[in-house]
Amino acid sequence: MTQDPKNAVTWFSIPATDFEKSIAFYQGLLGIKLSRETMGEGDMQMPFAMFPKQNEDGVTGAVTPANNVQPASGGVVIYLACSDLDGALGRVEGLGGSVVMPKMALPNEVGDIAIISDIDGTPVGLHQG
After folding, report:
1. Which residues does the chain have with pLDDT short of 50?
2. How many angstroms separate the Cα of 62 from the Cα of each of 10, 96, 102?
3. pTM (2 decimals)?
């Protein structure tokens, strides 16, 4: 069965060396609750903490234990929806992360973005529309 995706991105995964601490980091940063789930069975079972969808067609993803994929400081940057960008940027250092790129406006009134580094050093973008 094939379907044309509604979005170019359909899922994302943020690897975490300390799964519990990473969940607390993203919940504290964004003021949201990640839902704890499990995928796979038996020896292949793996926990993950899923970000809430913003709407029915929205893209979501999860924080996952860094078993097969390690956190990295380079590469693709995903942007998470952030309803209070200034507040999140003010909390990031207290949660163990850092600001990589301060808040800047996107053209055509698309909103504001910033890039932070999480507790594993992985850069993650924040977008307030």
Report:
1. 1
2. 12, 19, 24
3. 0.80
